[in-house]
């Protein structure tokens, strides 16, 4: 068997690139193995050597975004305290990084009309994990109020990222900096450690006893 040329892309990279190209053309649910092999110019044997199904390919493709330090930096900067950072300069700087723009565009595909609920949820969990790590909280120990704020803030950020084409350019970066969005997200996330559970045990577990007769039926 001939060895691949040094400049030749690995089969997995070809298929991941094909996945993103297809996601731009059609909904995630309609992407097939045949589509991927056609666009990547590989055969089905190559596909099934690396992946069991499209879901595994999608997970692999999306994982590359999670390893992008520029994307992690963007999500991190969203919750920096407002007086710690010059938002206008920071957001304008990002649009000069080609790799960042590629990842941002792919995120917009995940959260856009061709994405899916499962892909968006996976991305939201990624954002939440970064924030929790930065503020030093364990997901398993969050109270309902803290979870609510995280859901609200992360869904809002995903809404912004779904409009990447419109905002990740010179004008868009300036508008993000002019709005109160960064400060709002920052205040929300940094307020989470202060949302404490001061409800007494008796209050925390509502009971139906006052509303039920001794035989278990409504009085």
Summarize the structure in words.
The chain has helices at residues 11-25, 33-40, 44-50, 54-66, 69-77, 87-94, 98-111, 117-135, 144-161, 164-167, 170-178, 181-191, 201-204. The chain has 13 helices and no strands. The model is unreliable at 203-214 (pLDDT under 50). Helix 1 packs across helix 2, helix 1 (11-25) packs across helix 4 and helix 6 packs antiparallel against helix 11 (170-178). With 219 residues, the protein is an all-alpha fold. The chain has 2 domains: 10-64, Homeodomain-like (Arc Repressor Mutant, subunit A), CATH 1.10.10; 68-194, no CATH class.
> How many extended strands?
0
- Strand coverage percent: under 5%
Order of helices and strands: HHHHHHHHHHHHH
Overall number of structural domains = 2
Rg, please?
23 Å
Helix percentage: 55-70%
Average pLDDT value? 78
Based on helices, strands and strand pairing, what is the structural class? mainly alpha
Query: Poorly predicted ranges (pLDDT <50, ≥5 residues)?
Result: 203-214
What spatial form do the alpha-carbon principal axes imply? Answer: globular
Distance between the termini: 81 Å
By DSSP (H or I, 4+ residues per run), the number of helices equals 13
Described by strand count, sense and barrel closure, the largest sheet is:
none
């Amino acid at each position: 068997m001939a060895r691949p040329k040094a400049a030749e892309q690995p089969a997995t990279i070809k298929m991941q690139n094909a996945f993103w190209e297809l996601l731009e053309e059609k909904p995630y649910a309609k992407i097939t193995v045949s589509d991927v092999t056609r666009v990547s110019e590989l055969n089905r044997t190559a596909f099934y050597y690396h992946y069991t199904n499209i879901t595994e390919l999608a997970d692999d493709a999306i994982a590359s975004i999670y390893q992008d330090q520029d994307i992690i930096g963007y999500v991190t900067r969203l919750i920096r305290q407002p007086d710690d950072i010059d938002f206008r300069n920071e957001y304008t700087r990002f649009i000069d990084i080609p790799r960042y723009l590629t990842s941002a565009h792919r995120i917009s595909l995940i959260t856009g009309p061709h994405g899916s609920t499962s892909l968006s949820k996976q991305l939201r969990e990624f954002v939440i994990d970064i924030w929790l790590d930065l503020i030093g909280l364990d997901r398993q120990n969050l109270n309902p109020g803290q979870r609510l704020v995280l859901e609200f803030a992360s869904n809002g950020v995903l809404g912004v990222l779904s409009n990447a084409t419109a905002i990740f350019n010179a004008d868009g970066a300036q508008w993000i900096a002019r709005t109160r969005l960064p400060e709002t997200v920052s205040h929300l996330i940094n307020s989470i450690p202060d949302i404490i559970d001061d409800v007494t045990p008796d209050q925390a577990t509502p009971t139906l006893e006052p509303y039920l007769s001794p035989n278990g039926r409504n009085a």
